């Protein structure tokens, strides 16, 4: 799939979460937010677990419990506490600040600093949401603000850790999502029982609301959300979270008859522009530079000489590893006089190459390879000069021996002196 498809599918998750405000207000029992969170998470997780039939193993028991706590078990109760103690607009603005927290956690945990477009979008998105949902005289309860920020930080940490840990080999998104939903739902149930008492008996509208929130708003939405977290940069995924309060405001205008003035429409434009800006490919600063090999000026001649020497030593090790008696350029069936003649020419070539600055010692093949590497790095002109030097030193006779006849197939006897 293309990146645009991944972004579109991931954006469906916060857009679906934006329907939670309308469904909760119109269909669910009042004053039961914790039970609403438990019924929303646990049945959806158990359903996905039954479909996938995959359980965590080893270290993933602890990781699934931690991710389930951050994304579900802690986030849902803190979100409802903020919603009950703060005006809806204030709680939505606190939730829209998630990209800023994700940017900070990305630097700390992933060693990857987002680029300027992502940081600008992370600041502009909460500002746009604030213009949409805030109303004059909105109160700021300290406990509600703390709960809202804590819930936003929990989900931001869960998103970054989900990207850092990924999934176990062979485990799909459905199975990994089921682990988190079950872990988070099991954490909420005892808290809901202690705070709100026994769960309320649902009626027809409540069953419809729970079914929507559990199957669509939780199971499907979190599968798409975690899928996007595995495929897209976390900074881009977190920017899409602004769709949740924007969807809630749009549904309030369409279904409940709430008004949207010029300020709210301007906030919509700012938030949408920030989300689009956040999806643009930007250059990350710190993390990717560490992953890329360092670049610098072209190596000078001594560096190329050292490279050739290392290559020559490597090839010399291969030559030394050959069986005893096997020599370069001579087969076992070669006559003794021919072998002596070939050895003399190889020694001449080796001496010439060593004198020109190649790797000391070793066979003629190793020295020639080192010289070839240096010539290739220095350019075609150096290759031609080196080739002429090797040719002249290998063909010309040594001063202490007679010349080889150009017309005779049989080499002349080499003087022992």
UniProtKB/TrEMBL annotation:
SUPFAM superfamilies assigned to the protein according to its UniProt record, in alphabetical order: Multidrug resistance efflux transporter EmrE
Q: Which UniProt keywords apply?
A: Membrane, Transmembrane, Transmembrane helix
Bias (Polar residues) occurs at: 384-395
Membrane topology of this protein: Multi-pass membrane protein
Disordered: annotated segments: 283-417
A Pfam family found in this protein is EamA
- Which residues belong to any copy of the EamA domain? 9-133, 143-277
Q: Which domain of life is it from?
A: Bacteria
Q: Where is the composition biased (Basic and acidic residues)?
A: 312-321
Annotated membrane-spanning segments are 35-52, 64-84, 90-110, 117-137, 143-162, 174-195, 207-225, 237-256, 262-280
Compositionally biased residues, Low complexity = 344-379, 405-417
- Location relative to the cell: Membrane
Gene Ontology cellular-component terms for this entry are: membrane
Among InterPro entries, the record links this protein to: AA-Vitamin_Transporters, EamA_dom, EmrE-like
Q: What is its main location?
A: membrane
Indicate yes or no for the key word Membrane.
yes
Protein family per UniProt: Belongs to the EamA transporter family.
Q: What protein am I looking at?
A: Probable blue pigment (Indigoidine) exporter
Origin organism is Micromonospora humi
